[in-house]
Amino acid sequence: MQRIHAISSNLFPSFLAPLLEIPEPPKTIFYEGVLPERHKDTKVIAVVGSRRHTRYGKEVTQKLVSFLAPYPCVIVSGLALGIDSIAHKIALEVKLPTIAVPGSGIAYKNIYPSLHKQLAKDILSSGGALVSEFTPETKAAPWTFPQRNRIMAGLCDAVLVVEAEEKSGTLITARLALEYNKTVLAVPGNIDSPTSSGTNWLIRQGATPITKGEDILDALNIPIKGGAGTQELPFVDLSEEEKVLLLLLREPQSKDVLIRESGMEASKALITLTSLELKDLIKEEMSVYKRIV
């Protein structure tokens, strides 16, 4: 049995309070789960991007969200296919609080897309929350997504756009964030890639280009933690062999070099490399391995 709460605007807790500052603020918010406290150093970052993301977009999202693991950040996204769901999943892996704002009501039967009902459950079980201004029984429709975007933009301190086409819901969120005086961050991309046309346009309009995790900290005035810039392993559930190989992969390396430098037997090193690939932590291209995070 779901425990969905309805809270009126005059009773909004700290996490929802910024919604009172947007035009025509919602009179009621429905939520399930736990809303995080918004302390003075908490930064709420909406991570958004294309549903038809590229491999580059996936890798960048994994890298940037993982980088934020040691910091007081909350990841907000829309539970959508593509970059949104990647952001939620990586936040769960690195133990960052994550809040989903679906383009539907939050009654379980109406969660959209239905493919992400399990992801919604995982967010709740991790201590996160589902948030919507729609009544729980509202089904997803073309009009619900632009309206949902205003809630994401209103909740956050910054919107991080990873990939976006020139005409997309992602850019709606970014434009709303600009209207709401929020920080807009954009990852530059290949000038020939349709999924980077929107982010490159945002940068031309004045969005802050993000090429590494430290750029996010700088844009949001988050003090870098000692050693955080070189923090190697955002994931804690790794074997010693996996940690050794990831440390060796500060720079791309061939299989033979990794085996030699690790001191492992070849069979053990190959098994470990396969394990890291399955965890989406490394990839092999042209017989050379490189880290994704």
Description of the structure:
There is one protein chain. The chain has two domains: 215 residues, Rossmann fold (3-Layer(aba) Sandwich); 57 residues, Orthogonal Bundle (Arc Repressor Mutant, subunit A), CATH 1.10.10.10. With 293 residues, it is an alpha/beta fold. α1 runs parallel beside α2 and α4 crosses α5.
The gist of it:
The chain is α/β, with parallel strands linked by helices and 293 residues long. It has helices spanning 55-67, 83-93, 117-125, 144-155, 169-179, 194-204, 213-219, 240-248, 255-262, 266-278; strands at residues 5-8, 28-33, 43-48, 73-77, 98-100, 129-132, 158-161, 183-186, 208-209, 253-254, 282-285, 288-291.
Task: Please give the structural blueprint.
Blueprint (H helix, E strand, L loop, with lengths): L4 E4 L19 E6 L9 E6 L6 H13 L5 E5 L5 H11 L4 E3 L16 H9 L3 E4 L11 H12 L2 E4 L7 H11 L3 E4 L7 H11 L3 E2 L3 H7 L20 H9 L4 E2 H8 L3 H13 L3 E4 L2 E4 L2
Parallel strand pairs: 3-4, 3-7, 4-5, 5-6, 7-8, 8-9
Antiparallel strand pairs: 1-2, 2-6, 10-12, 11-12
Give keywords:
single chain, 293 residues, alpha/beta, Rossmann fold, Arc Repressor Mutant, subunit A, 3-stranded antiparallel sheet, 10 helices, globular
Rounded average pLDDT: 89
Whole-number count of domains = 2
Distance from N terminus to C terminus (CA atoms, Å) equals 38 Å
The spatial strand order of the largest sheet comes to 1-2-6-5-4-3-7-8-9
Shape: globular
- Spans with pLDDT under 50 lasting ≥5 residues? 227-236
Name the beta content range: 15-25%
CATH arch. level architecture of the largest domain = 3-Layer(aba) Sandwich
The level 1 CATH classification of the largest domain is: Alpha Beta
Largest sheet: 9 strands, mixed
CATH topology of the largest domain: Rossmann fold
Radius of gyration: 20 Å
- Helix percent band: 25-40%
Q: Could you state the order of secondary-structure elements as H and E? A: EEEHEHEHEHEHEHEHHEHHEE
- Secondary-structure content class: alpha/beta
Q: What is the number of strand segments?
A: 12
- Our count of helices gives 10
